[in-house]
Write a structure and sequence with these properties.
By secondary structure, the protein is an alpha+beta fold. It is built from 1 helix and 8 strands; from the N terminus they run αββββββββ.
């Protein structure tokens, strides 16, 4: 009898886990493929695009950490550490230097 109860609990747990893993894909939360996003420096008005590849977890070919709320990457070319808030579109750039470094705050137009 205990084995039957344990087996039922295990099957129910596996079923719940399967549904939980499938829910983000059904709900459209898990993005796939590539997308180009336009970002703007609010002070200068300069705009540029970043290319995000969700399948490879890269931004402009740089390895990125992609979560539900943020995308973070380091660009070795300019030494910047980037964090894109996926809800607001705020892009924070942190650049280290021998004089202490600096922060930049930009804005990106995200897809709805």
């Amino acid at each position: 009898m205990r084995l039957l109860v344990l087996t039922r609990s295990l099957v129910a747990g596996i079923g719940a886990l399967t549904i939980g893993m499938a829910f983000p894909a059904i709900n459209g939360e898990a993005q796939r493929g590539e997308t180009a996003i336009t970002c703007t420096n609010p002070v200068s008005g300069a705009s540029w695009q970043i290319r995000i590849d969700y399948d490879r977890s890269t931004v402009d070919s740089n390895p990125a950490r992609v979560t539900d709320s943020k995308i973070m990457w380091h660009d070795a070319t300019d030494g910047g550490n980037y964090t894109l808030d996926r809800k607001s579109g705020n892009l924070t750039v942190i650049v280290a230097s021998s004089t202490g470094g600096y922060f930049l705050y930009d804005r990106c137009r995200l897809e709805n």
